[in-house]
């Protein structure tokens, strides 16, 4: 489509202190001032380009934030120490005691647990809705609603949110639409479709090397200023600050994100088509059988594909476990949660990342026991991977137990 997020990242230019091709890492928690007056102005937020204390901001975090804001097309961004640090800070900045949130029910397990179990302690209540049913989204909004929350592609069921339609509803009630875009960086640009705030767990595709956790809130300058306010900013006061060494390394990894996403998408598309042809119940937004295939296509930035995440249902948890252990033995990937690694990662979400969601509700959402979530890796020879995976499936007897 119109937005070219990878170009925006490429066009940013930073040099290090000595002309280095990478920006210098700010290895300091505090900063000296030549005059006491400037220190006061900085504390009050009136001295641009001055740094006071690294929980507030640091040059390294600002560089990374700028790259992420360029990618998402927002004015600016605030980097946090984890995805949950970004999500909780953002929601607590938008909501006070007595407020209400309307959220998709198929969201990351940690976000679900925060909204369901933790936010009510602060008298913030959440209505969980089927985000694909726009009437029920609108019906859940009341006069206390302060946030409409969803994931562009949901975890683990890969439901796709109609961001433009949700943005219209949010505008009608004058509430911000907050979108967690962790599953589809570069592929989908939520702000282009009308979202107000975009969040990522940097832990996943964006960093891509499974060596750190990190998060970001991409939004307007006003909102980011409020998150960082020394008087009442959630991120400033709750303190989920990323370390400069980490933000520098994530920034370097971001420069290859477009290449990695294309390869993740290409490999996932290949496997999804093969698995489906083999008769496995396969969920992947790139398949025409996916209920939101056309919607995803209408929202996506061409070139980056439908992402690296897919699920298959192998009938039972026992079969799922057996298959995952065997695939790991053959070095086809790792039995691990998380996503966006060079190696394929797989897990059974019902018993792991979505275990915060009660069994009854898991059933209602279509989260079955035999579901395996794959984050497809950067394999050079995906045909060989497929052949080997198929051998594992045959050995475990998947094709005998699943109706084909
Ligand atoms: C992992 C994840 C999070 C949480 O991020 P952390 O970096 O683990 O705190 C939030 N949303 C989604 C969609 C995720 O996959």
UniProtKB/TrEMBL annotation:
<protein>
    <submittedName>
        <fullName>Aminotransferase class I/II-fold pyridoxal phosphate-dependent enzyme</fullName>
    </submittedName>
</protein>
<keyword id="KW-0663">Pyridoxal phosphate</keyword>
<feature type="modified residue" description="N6-(pyridoxal phosphate)lysine">
    <location>
        <position position="204"/>
    </location>
</feature>
<dbReference type="InterPro" id="IPR000277">
    <property type="entry name" value="Cys/Met-Metab_PyrdxlP-dep_enz"/>
</dbReference>
<dbReference type="InterPro" id="IPR015421">
    <property type="entry name" value="PyrdxlP-dep_Trfase_major"/>
</dbReference>
<comment type="similarity">
    <text>Belongs to the trans-sulfuration enzymes family.</text>
</comment>
<dbReference type="GO" id="GO:0019346">
    <property type="term" value="P:transsulfuration"/>
</dbReference>
<dbReference type="GO" id="GO:0030170">
    <property type="term" value="F:pyridoxal phosphate binding"/>
</dbReference>
<keyword id="KW-0032">Aminotransferase</keyword>
<dbReference type="GO" id="GO:0016846">
    <property type="term" value="F:carbon-sulfur lyase activity"/>
</dbReference>
<dbReference type="InterPro" id="IPR015424">
    <property type="entry name" value="PyrdxlP-dep_Trfase"/>
</dbReference>
<dbReference type="InterPro" id="IPR015422">
    <property type="entry name" value="PyrdxlP-dep_Trfase_small"/>
</dbReference>
<dbReference type="GO" id="GO:0008483">
    <property type="term" value="F:transaminase activity"/>
</dbReference>
<dbReference type="Pfam" id="PF01053">
    <property type="entry name" value="Cys_Met_Meta_PP"/>
</dbReference>
<keyword id="KW-0808">Transferase</keyword>
<dbReference type="GO" id="GO:0005737">
    <property type="term" value="C:cytoplasm"/>
</dbReference>
């Amino acid at each position: 489509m119109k937005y070219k997020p990878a170009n925006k990242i490429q066009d940013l230019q930073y040099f290090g202190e000595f002309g280095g091709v990478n920006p210098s890492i700010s290895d300091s928690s505090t900063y000296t001032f030549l005059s006491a007056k400037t220190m006061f102005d900085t504390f009050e937020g009136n001295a641009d380009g001055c740094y006071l204390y690294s929980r507030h901001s640091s040059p390294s975090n600002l560089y990374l934030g700028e790259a992420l804001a360029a990618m998402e097309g927002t004015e600016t961004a605030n980097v946090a120490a984890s995805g949950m640090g970004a999500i909780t800070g953002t929601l607590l900045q938008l909501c006070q005691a007595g407020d209400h949130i309307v959220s998709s029910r198929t969201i990351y397990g940690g976000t679900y647990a925060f909204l369901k179990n933790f936010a009510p302690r602060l008298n913030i209540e959440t209505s969980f809705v089927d985000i694909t049913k726009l009437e029920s989204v609108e019906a859940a909004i009341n006069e206390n609603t302060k946030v409409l929350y969803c994931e562009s592609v949901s975890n683990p069921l890969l439901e796709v949110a109609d961001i433009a339609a949700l943005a219209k509803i949010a505008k009608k009630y004058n509430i911000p639409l907050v979108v967690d875009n962790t599953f589809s960086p570069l592929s989908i640009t939520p702000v282009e479709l009308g979202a107000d705030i975009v969040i990522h767990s940097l832990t996943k595709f964006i960093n891509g090397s499974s060596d750190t956790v990190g998060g970001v809130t991409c939004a307007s300058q006003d909102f980011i200023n409020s998150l960082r306010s020394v008087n009442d900013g959630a991120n400033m006061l709750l303190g989920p600050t990323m370390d400069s060494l980490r933000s520098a390394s994530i920034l370097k990894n971001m420069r290859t994100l477009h290449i990695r996403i294309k390869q993740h998408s290409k490999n996932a598309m290949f496997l999804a088509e093969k698995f489906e042809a083999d008769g496995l119940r396969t969920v992947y937004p790139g398949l025409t059988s996916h209920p939101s295939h056309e919607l995803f296509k209408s929202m996506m930035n061409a070139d980056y594909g439908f992402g690296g995440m897919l699920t298959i249902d192998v009938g039972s948890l026992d079969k799922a476990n057996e298959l995952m252990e065997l695939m790991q033995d053959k070095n086809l990937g790792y039995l691990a949660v998380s996503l966006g690694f060079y190696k394929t990662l797989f897990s059974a979400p019902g018993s792991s990342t979505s275990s915060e969601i009660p069994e009854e509700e898991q059933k209602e959402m279509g989260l079955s026991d035999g579901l395996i979530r794959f984050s497809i890796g950067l394999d050079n020879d995906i045909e060989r991977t497929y052949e080997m995976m198929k051998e594992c499936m045959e050995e475990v007897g998947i094709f005998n137990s699943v109706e084909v």
